Amino acid sequence: MKRLFPALLLCSLAAACGSSNGADPVQFGHDPQLPDQQTGLVPTMKIASPAPWGDHRPVVPQGYTITAIATGFGIARQTLVLPNGDILVAEGRGGHEAALRPKDFIAGIIKAKGTSHAKSGNRLTLLRDADGDGTYELRTVFASGLDAPYGLALVGNTLYVANQGSLVRFDYRPGQTVASGPPVTLTDLPSRINHHWTKSLAASADGRYLYVGIGSNSNITERGMDAEIDRAMVWQVDTATGAHRPFATGLRNPTALAIQPGSGQLWTVVNERDELGPDLVPDYLTSVREGAFYGWPYSYWGQHVDRRVHPQDPAKVASATRPDYGLGSHVAALGLAFSSPAMGPRFAEGVFVGEHGSWNRSRPSGYKVVFIPFRNGRPTGAPVDVVTGFQGASGDTWGRPVGVTVDPKGSLLVADDLSNTIWRVTPAR
Amino acid sequence: MVVVQAGRPAPVLHPLQAALVAGIAPLFIGALLCDLAYGSTAEPQWSNFAAWLLAGGMVYAGFALLWALIDLVRLRTTRGRAGLLALALLALFVFGLVDCFVHARDAWAIMPDGPILSAVVAVLSLIALALSLSLLRRERVA
């Protein structure tokens, strides 16, 4: 009898480790393969091992070059290119959730190993390349004393910044290197617990509305339904009054928002739920339809029910909208930017997506920037690697991409929150 | 295994070991009750409580098991109630560990495995407690 128990335990553990051998299911595009759910005993955790870049450099396609234009940030997350070519970098780390279970303590310690230990900057840094030679020789602190700023948007002469708990604005004059005064709060944002604390931001084409992406307060409601009020949704905020309403819901963690040039359509990338196995659930890119419900927490990719939610809600499941385009499971998409023909013919129409990289699967996914080609305004075909080489075969990880921004003059900016570097990808001219 | 020699005194239980074993039962029974409360309310704080009670019970169970195994080696026997106690503690520890992992799942994913395992370890903790108390009594009689 004594021998039976360890055997039983080993079997259970093996089941938890899952079938990570064999071919990965194809999970990009409109109809990703969705394997059965796996709930093992121990969630698979493979955490990045941070290492200095040394002689390594990110890899870009032939015909492109990549350079580090600035480093040493207090956690570089998102960037904004101002009309005069200056770059604003949002720096910070947010969240104030308490560990509620033994698991939260243990997982917290393990996951922290894969991220930067830099102090949260809580500021915006401005970078300027006055002579256009690709060297950003001026660096100033544009605004400090912010609270984990993340989303950035410029509407006319107003700069909007989404802190983890408030949406604020600064007056902006072209050429300014330091904000002329303290920020004015347009509206508070949901900030209790802030498990997913990043508040993504985009402004409508006419500048009348701001869209704010607000992540869920849990993986899958393990902090209770009350904690999810006003979470996992995109708010539409009136810039004139600060009034808000839910624009779309059921989006577990909409980490980046972007307005499609031409159509004015709002798009987002969403981080889906964990602990259902290495190949569930695919993160996705989707157009955000007004009033639509995208499934979280009750279901994923349309009507695939997540039984971890109780009580369940079949009516909500039935109403769930399928996202447009799967990006792959656990890639952790955190950046989204529409490209322009200035990025070269290969990347003329489509979006760049920054993928921070996985923790919940034994073979890492993400850890790169990809390009999703569009045709007739819709994503189509397979993702194309744009910036890779953030992680070596040994698991050594030199950088982790977050925000991606296209400079209309023809470059792609990538914020790396592990080495705290801003990378700039340019087509060779 | 070495045969118990005639004249060797019956295995005795140290009172501190008895206290360790006695500490397991209320924690594991508490975990079971919290699991049942979660089952009827779907309020996750109950399963958080259960996870902590289980973790506490595992600290007691770990030390009690270690002590019992050392006793087996020291007394060079697996027979009798001391052997049964070690076996009960081993089963308790293994099922308790699995139960802890199950309680690390999110939200309703602990159902129904959580309460089932908590019931198993609660019963095992009572068996271990009864065995250890009976060993104390035998010592006094002897």
TrEMBL record, chain A:
UniProt keyword terms in alphabetical order: Signal
Pyrroloquinoline quinone-dependent pyranose dehydrogenase beta-propeller domain boundaries: 134-276, 319-426
Keyword field contains Disulfide bond: no
Signal peptide (residue range): 1-22
Top-level taxon of the source organism: Bacteria
InterPro entries hit by this protein: 6-blade_b-propeller_TolB-like, Beta-prop_PDH, Quinoprot_gluc/sorb_DH_b-prop
PROSITE patterns the UniProt entry points to: PROKAR_LIPOPROTEIN
Protein known as: Sorbosone dehydrogenase family protein
Naturally occurring in which organism (per UniProt): Novosphingobium cyanobacteriorum
TrEMBL record, chain B:
A Pfam family hit: DUF2231
Domain called DUF2231: residue spans: 14-127
Superkingdom: Bacteria
Keywords (A to Z) from UniProt: Membrane, Transmembrane, Transmembrane helix
Transmembrane segments: 18-38, 50-70, 82-104, 116-136
Keyword Ribonucleoprotein attached: no
InterPro entries given in the database record: DUF2231_TM
Entry protein name: DUF2231 domain-containing protein
Organism: Novosphingobium cyanobacteriorum
